[in-house]
């Protein structure tokens, strides 16, 4: 998340700025570095939730393919879904 995005979202949330928080280092009781750290934590948490939702969707698709009579096509589709799920989750561990 960029500083411009942090400032934009902070203003949308109702935080009042006397000056540019990142140049003066201060805005109504919150220091710029604290605001930036908070925004990065929120962004990381949202990204992790989205990543897990995608991984779960891959798992649901794998369950559908796994329920069919085992044929090479369905087994390949199941394996692809599981592989995608694992790759998505691995991105969060890196």
Task: Summarize this entry quickly.
This protein has one domain. Helices cover 77% and strands 4% of the residues. It contains four helices and two strands.
Describe the protein.
The protein is mostly helical. The protein has one domain (3-93). The protein is 77% helix and 4% strand. It is built from four helices and two strands. It has helices at residues 3-12, 21-24, 32-67, 72-93, and strands at 26-27, 30-31. Strands 1-2 form a two-stranded antiparallel sheet. Strand 1 and strand 2 (30-31) form a beta hairpin. Helix 3 (32-67) runs antiparallel to helix 4. It is rod-shaped.
Uncertain residue ranges: none
Could you give the count of β-strands?
2
Strands of the largest sheet, in order across it? 1-2
Element-by-element helix/strand order: HHEEHH
Question: What would the keywords be for this entry?
Answer:
two-stranded antiparallel ribbon, about 5% strand, rod-shaped, mainly alpha, single chain, about 75% helix, about 90 residues
List the topology elements.
Layout: H1 3-12, H2 21-24, E1 26-27, E2 30-31, H3 32-67, H4 72-93
Helix pairs in contact: 3-4
